[in-house]
Amino acid sequence: MEGSAGTLLSLLLRLLLTSSPGAPDHSPGLVARITDKGLEYVAKEGLVGLQRKLHGIALPDFTGDFRISHLGRVRYEFHSLDISSCELLGSALTPLPGQGLSLAISDSSIGVHGKWKVRKSFVKLDGSFDVWVKDITTSVNLLLGSEPSGRPTVTVSSCSSHISDVEVDVSGDLGWLLNLFHSQIESRFQEVLESKICEKIQNSVTSDLQPYLQTLPVTTEMDSLASIDYSLMQAPRVTDQVLDVMFKGEIFNHNHRSPVPFGAPVMSLPEECNRMVYFAISDYVFNTASLVYQEAGYLNFSITDDMIPPESPIRLTTKSFRPFIPRLAKLYPNMNLELQGAVVPAPFLNFSPGNLSLAPQMEIEAFVVLPSSIREPVFRLGLATNVSAVLTFNTTKITGFLKPGKVHMELKESKVGVFNVEVLEALLNVHILNTLYPKVNDKLAKGLPLPLLKHIRLYDLVLQIHKDFLFLGANVQYTKV
Ligand SMILES: *[C@@H]1O[C@H](CO)[C@@H](O)[C@H](O)[C@H]1NC(C)=O
Ligand SMILES: *[C@@H]1O[C@H](CO)[C@@H](O)[C@H](O)[C@H]1NC(C)=O
Ligand SMILES: *[C@@H]1O[C@H](CO)[C@@H](O)[C@H](O)[C@H]1NC(C)=O
Ligand SMILES: *[C@@H]1O[C@H](CO)[C@@H](O)[C@H](O)[C@H]1NC(C)=O
């Protein structure tokens, strides 16, 4: 059977994965993949912030002595240095396989405005100057990791900045001052600026990028019952082309979390790269949700006569059942019936290429409500149906709804003889359509939030349904105003 071959394969893969040190002991429920297009966007957006940051570089004063012909030694001071402009034009963020990302900033220039002062005994001269620092190239390696809490981390593992051209413009025609700058200050200035750029970048990664990455919702409360665990299972994985982030993707009852009796499937992601980001969302995410709601009794229901619409030709009374269950009416004359139903086991979402479906099974037990209010079981029914699921997407979440299918019912056990279940099937069908489906669809409409950083919106969504997982591609927009 295809199923057992699949199980064997996933078992083998799991064994292989667990035997390699450091690897988590089961597969992620959700994988977010950032493509080179995504990295390009991040580099572009990041540059804006970095440019602002470099504007804030504080440069030290440069002082010293200098020999000028005729005058002899003079004391000089270049002070009040301010960054007057900062332009970063080119940036590229590329994968560093096995480590993280490499950020290269090129085509950058910085303008500095400052004042100079020269003193020789009673003689004092001063003025202002501008420096244009051009052709700055900076290369930064970023190391990606994850904290034990499951949050992503980023650190700078190396940074180097190189300035290849400095131009000075001094007010007035003071050739000796230019010489002073070139011989005494230029290289120091260059050195200071190079190290300040890396210092600012380091600082920006620690105080802006890392906190931003940690806006990733590690656990998100979905409602009063369920939360979703989006903790990282390991450090983001970087290959030649992509950056993969492996999330647990498990929905749990936040009032009491219990271990999940099944694992996530091993997903083999298609090699798509038209979008900035892809999410592979395995059936594990949906099935852990199903388990939580089913175990909490969310899918349990009971039907009593007062819930039956007045126009219904059949009522939940033994009298009304007389024509098709005569023994029921005879044994329990003029009594009410109550049906208690439960979806057992928790229904799992079936993924097949292009289709999503469920085959929930229900157990329904019928009770006679005795005059003492004691409920006496009289028969049990089994109900099966095929339901198709339709998923839709929103800017930050997956929503969906169920399309009911035909129900099939059978009598499992009876203390009142065998009877035709058709009438009950119709009654139950109406009830399920009017209560259970809207209840579940209401939950599905609230949606499953995707693991997104703050201020991120998705657009240009594409969806594929693969065996065991949904594959959602999107472009990303950073929407901070
Ligand atoms: C739901 O119904 C099933 C079957 O009747 C029962 O075993 C289970 O305890 C119920 N769950 C809750 C939370 O009431
Ligand atoms: C998807 O399900 C529908 C309805 O059940 C069916 O008609 C269709 O053939 C299925 N498509 C695939 C690709 O299996
Ligand atoms: C559900 O679908 C399966 C497979 O197509 C079929 O064997 C089964 O009879 C269907 N059940 C119902 C209740 O329609
Ligand atoms: C997305 O879903 C949220 C919550 O259900 C809703 O408020 C919002 O209008 C939806 N946005 C779009 C674009 O459909």
Automatic annotation (TrEMBL):
SUPFAM superfamilies: Bactericidal permeability-increasing protein, BPI
Protein name as annotated: Lipopolysaccharide-binding protein
InterPro entries linked to this entry: Bactericidal_perm-incr_a/b_dom (IPR017943), BPI/LBP (IPR030675), BPI/LBP/Plunc (IPR032942), Lipid-bd_serum_glycop_C (IPR001124), Lipid-bd_serum_glycop_CS (IPR017954), Lipid-bd_serum_glycop_N (IPR017942)
Cellular localisation: Secreted
Signal sequence bounds: 1-22
Domain of life: Eukaryota
Family the entry assigns: Belongs to the BPI/LBP/Plunc superfamily. BPI/LBP family.
Domain Lipid-binding serum glycoprotein C-terminal: 271-474
Biological role stated in the UniProt entry: Plays a role in the innate immune response. Binds to the lipid A moiety of bacterial lipopolysaccharides (LPS), a glycolipid present in the outer membrane of all Gram-negative bacteria. Acts as an affinity enhancer for CD14, facilitating its association with LPS. Promotes the release of cytokines in response to bacterial lipopolysaccharide.
The protein's assembly and partners: When bound to LPS, interacts (via C-terminus) with soluble and membrane-bound CD14.
Species: Ceratotherium simum simum
Coiled-coil annotated residue ranges, if any: none
